[in-house]
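hiii, so i know i said id send this last week but things got crazy w the move. better late than never?? heres the sequnce for the chain we talked about at the cafe, plus the structure i predicted for it. fair warning i was half asleep when i ran it
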Amino acid sequence: MYVTRLRIEGLRGAPEELGGLSRVVALPPGIPRCAVADGLVLLATALDPRALWGFDTLGWGHDLELVGESEPQLLGLDPAEVGATVGPGVQVVTIEAGLHLDPPLFGQLRAQAARDPRMVTALGQRPVLSVKVGWLLSQDRTAASPALLGIRIGDVAFETSGKERPGWLPGLCRDLAGRFARTTPLEPVGAAAVRGLEASLSPDPEARAGWQRVVALLQEPPFSLPEPGLVRIGGEVQLVFGPQLDRIRQIGRGAWDALRLVEAALLRRPDVLILDEVIEPSVAAWFASLPEAEQAPIEQVWIPGESLGQRPGEDPGEDPGEGPGEDP
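okay and structure toks below
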């Protein structure tokens, strides 16, 4: 799955609409870059509010509480931080996206055709999934209510609430939300170390292989780092590099940045990876090659245009337009 179209309303600096998006998307410079990434986070979080997917990257608050079942509300927002993201006087933020269905997701929906005749009609057209979500802010901006406002497959719209809501819809929304990942330079170093330890000890062969790929690739260009490793010191797990077990403070911040970015792609393996931080052109080129790589770990990557050498508003590639039954 990847995003083919994105429309954001209510976020400060957000472009009006991005359309015809390809597997590699050049983010606009400055505040709009962050606004687009924030919009994608709000989209995923509204699809699955219980998971609060990536919400920490917004900086809207730390002691958050989600209440309510059918109409969830997020409490404990910091009004100043919300105001830094949301436009003046705005009480409603909406995000609408077009999503290209990959073969597994298309197959999941096709399996529902026997129970929901409308799905037969929907998938018989161009099977593009369109979703629209909204965030209603309280007057004092200390609370927000996320909601799924609309979902459409092809030209067929489905109810998002009430008795007519399809039984498969909640599961689909959770699935879609989990297909996004956003990196943040503010992530604690220990978080990646813990994920690396969990993967290296996991009973899941794929998770163990993912961590091994991270370690191997970080030793190759464009990263060319000493071999990463993990050590336990006291009650903490720390990242080290090379035979002398150099710490990050010794080898430099670049080693930490490289590890968390590669780990996001190869270990977490989201469909849509959002890198809204300026990175070296050689590293950006490496990430831009991932969606088209053999056994691609990701379907789409969003990278600052300046890292890709793009001019503002220029897209680095055209939408290849694969059909849902084709292996991308």
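btw Residues 31-47 form the longest helix (17 residues). thought thatd interest u
miss u guys!!
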